[in-house]
Specification:
Belongs to the LysR transcriptional regulatory family. The chain has ten helices and ten strands. It is an alpha/beta fold. The protein folds into two domains: 82 residues, Arc Repressor Mutant, subunit A (Orthogonal Bundle); 208 residues, D-Maltodextrin-Binding Protein, domain 2 (3-Layer(aba) Sandwich), CATH 3.40.190. Strands 4-3-5-10-6-9-7-8 form an eight-stranded mixed beta sheet, sandwiched between helices.
């Protein structure tokens, strides 16, 4: 078990004085007075209960106990110095923090997280998956992906993806015409964090566009989580008016089908960050990655 150590300042003063065989030269190295060095040595000798130096007229010499302490102490300080130097030489990790909704993160970002470091050497990625917007002005994240971002003097928006919404369901429901919705449950997603909700794609807007008067657009199952609404549709629990961007993988695999139209234009997904931060390294790294990843995503959509 390691014993209690004397004060580091006293050990440092002792090591320098022993190495120089001089309190004066030790004081010059450490930027203190010879009196301070002498004081530290006396405290150290009192702490260990041994005389460490033989005081002579113009020099000092180590006693046998002093010599036993000096050698391992010199090696310890050398090792400490090398460790500190190594830490100083090591480049600091750079972290880019991006906020996005839980559904967008899981479905469009997670498949490409490894590509972030391939594109941005020396950078780490931190994803904040939440349907509640973060405060970008307070630097809770470097940037965010927002749906239908509104213009602001404090925030800048760069377009990423346009979106469309359409009825999608499990092929097991065997829906072929809009009128078939009468025998299925409608799946709703609650846009509780979106502003100007009247312009968002909802079943009420779709029913009016499709001209299907026999359907109650308010009936069915409602979710406050977009991913849960998608999973309910995959499980055959009903028909969701869902983002074609977010269900792209399920449409490609056949887990979901789009049995009929029309489609409704959604809003746009934008990369949003504080104004004047466009050229900061974190925002540049995030934008480079998103443009590359979403281009891959779009290419995959063209092949299905």
């Amino acid at each position: 078990m390691t014993g209690r150590l004397p004060p580091l300042s006293a050990l440092r003063a002792f090591e320098a004085a022993a190495r120089h065989s001089s309190f004066k030269r030790a004081a010059a190295e450490l930027g203190v007075t010879p009196t301070a060095i002498s004081h530290h040595i006396r405290l150290l000798e009192a702490d260990v209960g041994k005389q460490l130096f033989l005081r002579q007229a113009r020099t000092v010499a180590l006693t046998a106990d002093g010599d036993n302490l000096f050698r391992p102490l010199t090696e310890a300080f050398r090792s400490m110095g090398e460790a500190v130097a190594a830490v100083r030489r090591r480049p600091a990790r750079k972290i880019a923090t991006l906020s996005a909704t839980s559904a967008f993160t899981a479905r469009l970002l997670l498949p490409y997280v490894s590509a972030f470091r391939d594109l941005n050497e020396g950078w780490d990625l931190r994803l904040l998956a939440s349907d509640e917007p973060v405060n970008l002005e307070a630097r809770e994240a470097d940037a965010a992906i927002r749906y239908g971002a509104e213009s602001s003097s404090e925030l800048t928006s760069l377009p990423l993806l346009a979106d469309q919404y359409a009825p999608v369901c499990s092929p097991k429901l065997d829906l072929r015409r809009p009128e078939d919705l009468a025998r299925a449950s409608l799946i709703h997603f609650d846009w509780r964090f979106a502003s100007k909700k009247r312009t968002l794609p909802t079943w009420r807007l779709w029913v009016a566009r499709a001209g299907v008067s026999s359907i109650d657009p308010e009936s069915g199952i409602a979710f406050n989580d977009e991913s849960a609404a998608i999973q309910a549709a995959v499980a055959g629990q009903g028909v969701g008016l869902l983002s074609l961007t977010l269900v792209e993988a399920e449409l490609a695999s056949g887990a979901l089908v789009q049995p009929f139209g029309p489609s409704l234009d959604g809003r746009r997904y934008d990369l949003v960050f504080p104004t004047h931060a466009e050229s900061t390294p974190a925002v540049v790294a995030l934008h480079r990655w998103l443009v590359s990843s979403l281009a891959l995503n779009a290419s995959a959509a063209l092949t299905r």
